[in-house]
Design brief:
Blueprint lengths: L4 E12 L4 E12 L3 E6 L5 H8 L7 E6 L2 E2 L3 H10 L1 E4 L11 H7 L8 H14 L15 H13 L5 E5 L7 H18 L2 E5 L3 H4 L4 E6 L2 E7 L2 H7 L24 H18 L1
Parallel strand pairs: 3-8, 3-9, 6-7, 7-8
Antiparallel strand pairs: 1-2, 1-4, 4-5, 9-10
The chain binds adenosine-5'-diphosphate and magnesium ion.
Length: 277
């Protein structure tokens, strides 16, 4: 399933506290296009740090990261990659609480150069893909945990990224929602041919990935690849795929009472993003 190099890590180290805490120790990894990878390991083994280093949110203390063979070192390079090629899904959703579902997704398109109409069209499409078209005007607090994570997934795919990084994406969900979110993520990964790298604690979730990277004390201690036959079976589209018709009914607010606040918050958020970029 692996094709050309997408993201490579060479001798990557990351320490905290002036070197007293070693989160990553000489990590060497090579991820290809279209791969599904589970990052496994006990709490504190460096999984989250690895995810954050792979999207440029954390700068490694030493070592090299390459995107399609090119070394990536500057913040500007990472910002551009996150805007166009890398989508991220966090355990705690990371949504703006005062923005609607649609606005939370739209934030990720800032700086893409897309017109307002194009942004609106793509946000609607992304929310529809995750089965949330009818929740576009809802605030995060009006959505269930599973729905919030679907908003975060819509945000992560809005720019059609080649790589999706997910740090325990189902960690805050009950088992039914967790299964539905995973189905959605794997369906999207297959349909779009993107690479999915997912931190997971649950063995049944990890089994759905073609490759397992096991970490211990900041080091990659072992890597395994699933037999191709099992992966072919798993590639069948899931039966529990979320869709709008299956989503629980909820009143729609065509004119959300806090809409004006949301708009202002959106523009504030966009300004912040622009300053960071
Ligand atoms: N911001 C931080 N400051 C200091 N130490 C940190 C920080 N983030 C993580 N660590 C430490 O780095 C190690 C790896 O953490 P982490 O990557 O979060 O592991 P995991 O996600 O596998 O639980 C742990 O010892 C953790 O305490
Ligand atoms: Mg973690």
């Amino acid at each position: 399933m692996t094709s050309s190099h997408l993201l490579q890590l060479e001798h990557v180290n990351h320490t905290f506290d002036a070197g007293r805490i070693v989160a990553l120790r000489d990590v060497n990894l090579d991820f290809g296009e279209g791969e599904s990878v589970a990052i496994l390991g006990a709490s504190g083994s460096g999984k989250t740090t690895l995810i954050l280093v792979m999207c440029g949110i954390r700068t490694p203390t030493s070592g090299v990261l390459r995107w399609r063979g090119e070394p990536i070192s500057t913040l500007r390079q990472w910002t551009d990659l996150r805007r166009t090629e890398i989508g991220i899904v966090f355990q705690d959703f990371n949504l703006f609480s005062t923005l609607t579902a649609a606005e939370n997704v739209e934030v990720a398109m800032f700086g893409s150069g897309a017109s307002t109409a194009e942004r609106k069209r793509r946000v609607e499409e992304a929310l529809d893909t995750v089965g949330l078209a009818r929740r576009a005007t809802h605030l995060p607090q009006e959505l269930s945990g599973g729905e919030r994570q679907r908003v975060a997934i819509a945000r992560s795919i809005i720019n059609n990224p080649k790589l999706i990084l997910a740090d325990e994406p189902t960690g805050n969900l009950d088992s039914k929602n967790a299964a539905a979110i995973l189905d959605l993520m794997f369906d999207l990964q297959r349909a779009r041919g993107s690479t999915l790298i997912m931190v997971s604690h649950a063995p049944d979730q990890a089994r759905r990935c073609a490759r397992h990277v096991n970490m211990k004390d900041g080091q990659v201690v072992d890597q395994t690849f699933a037999p191709a036959r099992r992966m072919r079976r798993l590639r069948e589209p899931s039966r529990t795929r979320l869709s709008q018709s299956q989503a629980p009914a909820r009143a729609i607010h065509p004119h959300h009472p806090r809409r004006g606040v949301c708009r202002r918050q959106l523009h504030h958020a966009l300004r912040l993003v622009a300053q960071c970029a």
